[in-house]
Amino acid sequence: MDKMWDTIGACWQVKVLISCFVTCFTFLVGEIEAPFIALWLLVMIDTMTKWAAVSKNTLQKNGLDDHSIWYGFYLSWHNGDLSSREMRQKFATKVFAYFMLIVAGNLIAKIIPGLVLFGSDISKIPGGFVYSFLAVTELMSIIENLIEMGMDVLKPLAVWACRKRDDMTGGGGRVG
Description:
By secondary structure, the protein is mainly α. It has 7 helices and 2 strands. Strands 1-2 form a two-stranded antiparallel ribbon. The longest helix is centred in the N-terminal third of the chain and has 28 residues, at about 35-60. The chain starts with a helix and ends in a 7-residue tail after the last helix.
């Protein structure tokens, strides 16, 4: 197995292909910096809290409130509440949409001329807005999942996050 990877690693065609992929990815997405990593960590946390909320609801539906969340996860998976196909479709759609928004924000930054006003480069504003909006959206989803798990004390935080997102967009979104 190691010999196979050594052979692949020594192949110049593979190196060119990887180099082209990395160059295209970097051009489309930009440098992999803290906002990019933080957003995808929020997406993972959102997914985990969603699984936990579904698991908790499955335990409650079956009158098994005294069992662990892991048992709820097991039951949810076997009952089909957490089907891999459904989760894959939802997750893949979200990842695709977020990736396209990040690419669009980054490409706009490449088109807008670099102009510094009041100490900020205005070409970075569209990408920053995209990351900020998606981060607040993920935060709202995480809070909603935790509320669904029974943490009602977080309801004011959900209202706050919704207002912040509305402030960013001027929209009239709503919580839960």
